[in-house]
Every structure is written in C-alpha cells, then in structure tokens.
Design a protein that fits this description.
By secondary structure, the protein is an all-alpha fold. It folds into 2 domains: 2-127, Serine Threonine Protein Phosphatase 5, Tetratricopeptide repeat (Alpha Horseshoe), CATH 1.25.40; 208-297, Tetratricopeptide repeat domain (Serine Threonine Protein Phosphatase 5, Tetratricopeptide repeat, Alpha Horseshoe), CATH 1.25.40.10. Helix content is 69%, strand content 0%. The chain contains 15 helices and no strands. α8 runs antiparallel to α9 (158-173), α11 (211-224) packs antiparallel against α12 and α13 (248-261) packs antiparallel against α14 (266-277). The longest helix is centred in the middle third of the chain and has 30 residues, at 178-207.
Length: 298
C-alpha cells in the first residue's frame, strides 16, 4: 500500500504546475525526490537497486521492477530505467504498473535526450490511454520533446512547426491546466522563431533583388505572426521592397500601417525616411496622413 501511494504521488505530481525543463528536475523526478525524502518508496535502497541491476528482470515482481526503474531515474541511469519500465510492460502487460511504466518510459527517454524515442513512447501512451488522468502530462512531455529539438533559425524549422502543433494540442485538450499555461508561452516563442526564419530568408531575397519572393516572406510574418517582435521590421522591409519596385503608393500605405501600429518604433522612422528620400512624402517632421490598418494593405 505504501508503494502504491508513492506511485500515485509520483504520477499525480505531474498536475501540480511545475515547469519541465531538461536543465533541471521535471515533474516526475521532483515527485520521486519528495517520495524518497519521506521514505514513501518501500524497498528503494541503494543495496536493493544494486541487486536489481544484477537480477534477471523477468524474475522481479511488477512493483519491485517498477521501483527499480524509479531508482534508476533518480540516480540518472536513464538507459537502465528504460529497460526496467519496458520489462514491466513486457512481463506484466495487464497490470496497472504497465500503464505507469509506459509513461515513465517516455520520461526516461526525454531525460536522456532521446527525443524521438520519447515522442514515440508518449504518442503510444496517448493512443492507448486517452482518458487516463496522466495523459495530460503525456501530451505536455511530448510537446517538450519536440520543443527541445528546435534548431537555430539558420536551419530547417520543421521541428519548430511540430513543436508548435504539439503545444497547441496541449492547449486544445487541457486548456485550464498549468500545462496549457506553459504551452501558450512556448507557442509564442515558437512563433517568434518561425517569424525569424521568414525574415532571414526574406532579407536574403531582398539582397538578391528577388523582390516578389522577399515580399512573400515579409507578408507571411505580417499575416501569420503579427504578435511577434519581427512585425515592425517586416513592414519596414515591405516598404523598402515596394519602393525598389517603383510601387510608391503601396510603399506609402505599408508605412502608414507601420506608423499607426508602431508610431515610436525605429523601423517606422527608417521607413518614413525612405519615403522622404523617394519623394513620396514631404521632407518635414510629423505623422503620415491617414494612418491605415493591416487589412488595407494585405
């Protein structure tokens, strides 16, 4: 009974609002520490764990095998933990321990930075146990596994798109949870990352005088990532491109949008100066007349 209660604490701790990160302890690990600190995990001494390492996994009962996996996790032996959790499911597929082991398998893979394996294990858990109370954490940990694989903006951003979709799944399925609150913050970071990639490619196209392609990239930022920090620059560079193409009316309207939404922004001042240099507006200080809206341009 003591062991069962400790495991319930272990898994239910994933609903207490901690933020998981590979830089520190994640939700199940914190619960393990708490359980160990209060002596709740029966039979989890270093001697017994050492014995488990040399024991045929199939000979251990389900609870001891699961506990051995928890011990390995707490000790940072993630590969051993994976073996133990897998052994629980293989040897006791219909036991409640098998369900818990499936989730902890995904967590152990995440902790050892095997994100593809973590995603596979967690996706399987979600499919097998859609109504389990701990499925919310499985969704969240799957999203974190994608999130950890995000690369810098100079590289392909398919992992960022997958992370954004997975984080959105958390928000859609569990909107009132602490997981959803953290997922929304990470979604904003993903959008900013994707916008940064669009801007990088757009600037390159502009530098190569490939103006149509550059416009497409900048307008993607304006349309799809309006709330990111890249939007003012995207509007200013759209103004630049229109001026380079001789489309002064479109350039002026885009600058109006920029001035209306970001009146004190440095990118608006740059756009305004370019309008002056191209004779679109008179050389005097003040706002551009008739400020516009996004819908007027795109």
């Amino acid at each position: 009974m003591m062991l069962s209660f400790a495991v319930r604490r272990l898994l239910s701790a994933s609903k207490q609002g901690w933020t998981a990160s590979k830089q520190g302890w994640t939700l199940p690990a914190l619960a393990v520490i708490a359980a160990l600190g209060t002596g709740m995990l029966a039979g989890c001494s270093s001697n017994e764990d050492s014995l488990a390492l040399s024991t045929d996994l199939a000979s251990l009962p389900a609870d001891k095998l699961y506990n051995a996996g928890i011990d390995s996790l707490q000790a940072g032996r993630y590969a051993d933990a994976v073996k133990r959790f897998d052994a629980v499911e293989q040897n006791y597929p219909y036991a409640s321990w098998a369900t818990k082991a499936q989730l902890m398998h995904g967590y152990a893979e995440y902790k050892r930075n095997h994100y593809a394996d973590a995603i596979s294990a967690l996706q399987r858990y979600i499919q097998l146990h859609p109504s389990n109370p701990d499925t919310a954490y499985a969704y969240y940990l799957r999203a974190l596994s994608y999130y950890e694989e995000i690369s810098d903006i100079e590289r392909d951003q398919s992992n960022t798109e997958k992370a954004l979709a997975a984080l959105n799944d958390v928000v859609v399925h569990y909107p009132e949870t602490s997981y959803a609150r953290d997922a929304r913050l990470k979604m904003d970071l993903c959008r900013d990352h994707l916008a940064g990639k669009e801007m990088e490619v757009g600037r390159w196209y502009e530098g190569q005088h490939m103006y149509i392609a550059a416009l497409a990239r900048f307008q993607t930022v304006i349309t799809n990532y309006q709330t990111t920090n890249h939007t003012p620059e995207a509007l200013e560079r759209t103004t630049e491109v229109y001026l380079a193409m001789g489309m002064k009316g479109e350039a002026k309207r885009t600058a109006e949008v920029l001035g209306y939404n970001y009146p004190g922004n440095e990118w608006y001042q740059k756009a305004y100066n370019q309008l002056i240099e191209n004779g679109v507006v008179p050389d005097k200080k003040g706002k551009i007349e008739q400020p516009g809206f996004f819908s007027r341009v795109f």
